[in-house]
Amino acid sequence: MIQAKDLEAGELAALLHFYADAGVDWLLEDQPIDRFEEFAVQQAAREQVRRVQAPSPAGQEERKRRTVPVPSAQLNPPPVAMPNDQAVAAAQLAAEGARSLAELKTALEAFGGCNLKNSARSTVFLSGNPASRIMVIGPMPNADDDRDGIPFSGRQGQLLDRMLAAIGLSREAVVLTNIIPWRPPGNRMPSPAETAICRPFIERQIALAEPGHLLLLGNFPARFFFGESGTIHSLRGEWRELTVSGRAVRAIATLHPQELLTAPANKALAWQDLLRFAEAAQAFGRHA
To answer: Per the database entry, which stretches of residues form a coiled coil (predicted)?
Structure first.
């Protein structure tokens, strides 16, 4: 009888394919093997090894004496306290003390009063050209933004680039920023306390950049600036007159690029909003 060890690799492969085509699921040994007995022998051998390696009672007592107990607080550290009114006041002081966007960036990077900073990799500050007087504001950094340290990175940023290009703009020709400068863990929504702490910094960005028009992307920015609780579908597409840090600015909301990636059918709505935004921004630029 021909044995498997006598076959060439190609012959062995062909034989296995034949068995598979024939419906063979298991290959049997030439001689029966008692697997139960084999397992019992292996288990007895492992038990023997454990008995040999187990320390003596005296050794166990010595090890107990040398073991330093770990305080329960280290095993289960208490959660970081949420920011309070003092943190909001500190944020206002830090933001108002900045006389330029560069100073504001330094102040934001040095600020430690928001818990979101503890879990984020980067402090994501605005980018682009403040002289354009056009500001695009998103909600908060995502994982790509947090990794790259700039707003609107990754697929969302690529789609935003195409949206801006469609109305004759680019990310280099506008200001891109987020309300929240640090990525919340798991991309969750920021809490009201975290939002209150970040408010002075975004309002100071607007005051220093002096935009004439704001393009708000998504539910969170629309609700944040309009003070309403509706969805982006009810808040989008209409110009609003806002007062931010004592100065008037016009704002219009539309869908966030992520919402368009999730539901491409909404691109028609976003396109209407972009055309309305572009028309007003161009008119503002001609009279600025």
So the answer is: none
